[in-house]
Amino acid sequence: MLTYISIFITAIFVNNIVLTQFLGICPFLGVSKKIDSALGMGAAVTFVMTISTIVTYLIQTYLLTPFGLTFVQTIIFILVIAALVQMLEIIMKKVSPALYQALGVFLPLITTNCTILGVAILVIQKNFNLMESVVFAISTALGFTLALVLFAGIREQLSMTKIPKAMAGIPIALITAGLLAMAFMGFSGIKIG
Q: CB-based contacts of 157: which residues, under 8 Å, 6+ apart?
């Protein structure tokens, strides 16, 4: 149980996928102008990351490693993630149109989100079992969502302030992201267990 708690806290705060590992910067900067869109993207990423981690873990464990095909891991994982996103989009459109409308805009963006692929590869590199992989995927997605929502909240506040013309837009967003990353560095001293 302590292992799962450690994975959970570490993935969200200490090794936040966006702010310490710098994966998923494109959606972090692009979808973080409003809290609503940040929450939508976070929910979509959580859903897809959990399912894709389970599927890629099983493919790695029962197909790639036993048959000595680990050299095609990245290509297979990319294809699996893209296929999963497409299947989820089709299934959600038929089964739950309301959920499809809520996440529909964000699902195509997830196909190119490097955090999904990064987590799929990280669980293999860290030698996690299936349950640890699922906890890591959910925790990492929650950490991604937390960073996205915090950044969106700050950007909403910044949009109401007077910023020098040379700093408006991307420059102030990058400075804000850097300050947020430095704030998360404060969690690096946390030891669990």
A: none
Q: Report the first-to-last Cα separation within the chain, whole angstroms.
A: 11
Question: Would you state the structure tokens that stand for residue 163, as one six-digit string?
Answer: 């910023």
In this predicted model, what pLDDT tens digit does every residue of 130-181 receive, in sequence order? 999 999 999 999 999 999 999 999 999 988 888 899 988 889 988 999 999 9
Q: How confident is the model at residue 103 (pLDDT cuts 50, 70, 90)?
A: low
- Residue 127's φ and ψ, nearest 5 degrees, are 55, 40
User: Residue 192: which pLDDT band, with cuts at 50, 70 and 90?
Assistant: low
Quote the CA–CA distance of 171 and 15 in Å, as a whole number.
25
> Using a CB cutoff of 8 Å and minimum separation of 24, what contacts does 100-103 make?
102/40, 102/43, 103/40, 103/43, 103/44, 103/47
Is pLDDT above 90 for 185?
no
Contact 176/154 with Cβ under 8 angstroms? yes
Using an 8 Å Cβ cutoff, are 48 and 116 in contact? yes
Q: What is the CA radius of gyration of the chain?
A: 18
Using N-to-C axis directions, what is the helix angle for 130-158 and 2-9, rounded to 10°? 30
pTM: 0.88
66's tokens: 């036993």
How many other CB atoms are there within 10 angstroms of residue 113's CB atom?
Answer: 24
Q: Which residue has the tokens 């955090």?
A: 115
